[in-house]
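Notes continue from the previous slide.

Worked example: a multi-chain complex. Inputs as given:
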Amino acid sequence: MSVRRAALTLAGAALGLAMLAPYLVMLLTALKPEPELRVTPPRLLPVAWRFGNFADVLADPGFQAWLRVSLVVAGLSTALVLLAAVPAAYYTARHRFRGRGAFLLLVLVTQMFAPTALVVGLYREFFELGLINTYAALILTNAAFNLAFAVWILRAFFASIPREIEEAAAVDGCGRARTLLRVVLPLSLPGLVTAVIFAFIAAWNEYVVALTLMTDAERRPLTIGITSYVTAYVQHWNALFAASLIAIVPVVVLFALIERALVGGLTAGSLK
Amino acid sequence: MPAAELVRASLSRYSITGLYQGFVGARNYARLVQQEPLPGVALNTLVWVASVVGVTLLISLALAQLLDAEFPGRRLVRWALLVPWAASLIMTSKLFVWIYDYYFGILNHALLSLRLLAAPVDWLGDDRTVMAAMIAVGVFVSLPFTTYVLLAGLQAIPGDVYEAARVDGAGGWRAWRWITLPLLRPALLVATSLNVIYVFNSFPIVWTLNDRNPGFGHDTLITYMYKIAFKSALRDVGLAAALGVVNVGLTLAAVLAYLGAAGWREPDA
């Protein structure tokens, strides 16, 4: 049995390493000084470890602008998702109404639809509205495409709260809105956290819509902005990867927090 | 709303600067069918989706089995598996452009040192290797989600089924083939159909890794559509919208297949 255990541990370690190895290359490249990027044969480890690359990126006004755009777009679209998802999820969890099945089916279908296939239509729509190159266009699109996951997760949480608790709150003189705010929402905090983290990360990582709609260099989010570190004319791979790691690390930590709820939310409970 | 706009655009003509120039009926669709790169692009798409999804499923089956077992450090391995899932796809794609680099990439260096290659390969510039190189990255980023779905499926199988099998004398491979695999069917169907949808609509990997190559030789229907609309000399919104409608239709077909596979029904509560 202990041989089996050792073999499993070894296989697990190999898997972990295989998943992390490319990102280790990313980190080691981010720590190299500029001249060490172009040596043949390439070296895995830097000769002179240059931690200053991270400070340089953080001090770059371009990076600061992209970071600000990413934070604003991801933050506001997440707020929008929450504002729309909480009432929708609560209503469908508590009431049976005509078209409820159709509504939930629609939620499911939009969840699977990536904006990519629709990007030409999105571009036309925002072009007609004169909203090309505005934050509003990007925020609305992100919110629309991330709404489904939030509705789905929250609906399950709301449905699991016994009606008796809400009835007790009503007896104590709580109105509908106050019951939702004071009783239901605190009890479904784990669901709210999951929905918020998921919506934020999805918007944070979004690429194709931003690439299409944001033509002004000043208004680009991180995913688009950082690609200007490596073009046909300049190749600052160290800066590109330092910036990437600054964007990736917090997101991985947040993702690990909601690990358990992810599969259920993305397969819309079809596995249970 | 963007879907309606997409259909409208597919029936219209636009100038290079995006101004509406009138209704043309189905002419964009007729032109789409005549586009010379279309058959090649359609074939690329088929190869891309089938390879990425197929290889991902096979590897994920093994990985899910591994992560279902108890061993020290399992939590750490599960977290490591989250990284390619959480990281932005464009950043991971750029990372692989660097790893695949002909002169400075670590991949050629490693393979040469191990004597697996006699001469360096221009992975992203050589027509014979570009697709395979892109597929490898596609598999790498699809593994986490797929493994997690299959793991959830494995953990839903009650333990006493295996005990009953052991009493009947079935163990090891036979138990896996005749008990685990059939009971894993719903999870496999869900993982397959969702992956088909995600991989078909995947943009950043092909967009970034195929960046250096002119023409449409290694494009999928999605990147081809994007190039028609925004990047190539064509700048033909009407034509791209027609292809967009086709792409949405294909995605919708996959979604319906998924709903069928998952046995969708209205939740009770």
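Summary box: The two ends of chain A are 32 Å apart (CA to CA). The mean pLDDT of chain A is 88.
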